[in-house]
Amino acid sequence: MTQPAPPSKSALSLxxxxxxLGITLLGVLMIIGTQRINSSGMNTxxxxxxxxxxxxxxxxxxxxxxxxxxxxxxxxxxxxxxxxDPDAPVNLAAAGIILGGFLVGAFLLLPLGFVFGTAIxxxxxxxxxxxxxxxxxxxxxxxxxxxxxxxxxxxxxxTLPPGILKGVI
Length: 169
Hints:
Helix 3 (93-112) runs antiparallel to helix 4. The chain contains 5 helices and no strands. The protein is 60% helix and 0% strand.
């Protein structure tokens, strides 16, 4: 029976460190958010903060362990079925495009409305993954955003910002 290869140790991997720090930051932000949950005022052991706090602390600890490991030179290994080269240079262009689309869409969500804000986000994801049929991307992005808006507002009864389509949809 063969033993699995030990994790490779090499130079510091910036993506691994960034993911580890991101998980740690998310855990800390969740702890802060959990503190804002109103307690019921009853003298109970298990209140509304208990389970979110367990998840938040666990996520923070996981992020801290991953950060220490990443700083020691441990690297995330691709799964055996992945055809990747862990030593290839990192291309953050697609991630940057998606993040940029998310930020622009989020910024325009209130003035333009949910449909157009999320359509921008969908469009940026399609572009980041290499789609270049802009007319099709625009049509699909708007259609998916509109269907999502209708499902959430009419199907679930949620209130989403209509923006410039107020009175139309």
